[in-house]
Amino acid sequence: MQVTNVHKRKINQSKVEVIKLLNTLSTKYDKIWPYEKWPAIRFKNGLKVGSEGGHGPIKYTVASIDYNGCIVFSFTNTGFNGNHTLKVEELSNSEVEISHTIKMKTSGAVIFYWLFIVKWLHDALIEDAFDKLENQFSLEKKETKYNFWVKFLRMIKSKKSKTHYKLNVIEK
Question: What is the pTM of this model?
Fold first, then answer.
């Protein structure tokens, strides 16, 4: 199944200032990734071309970095064939548009995994990331509300994690 998933947000800030924050991605001073609510994004060799990593069960490598505001990641999970791009485009001296675009082809059981689980969680995560980025420049804090399905999936994941933890503690 061909997948194109696009998120865009206008930020009232210069491109230079937004790119400074983009450069913190996957560091311990990350100003974009919502690691407070989601699995952290990590790369074995930092944010460098060829570095392997990802977040949670989603794995990818850094395919290219344009330090003028574009990072491309290539999926490495079986069934996820394609890439996702994080890009900052200048609209004016004081406004940019940040975008995150997935272009991939899914196959096999991953089609259902994408449609019923990953897509929903991914959309919520990206909106949280855009909120975090925008909140770096705003006094009025944004917080995107999760829909019922995202809340349900996160609740299941939370219960599964707690059960897994309890089992690990019992086994030790």
Answer: 0.90
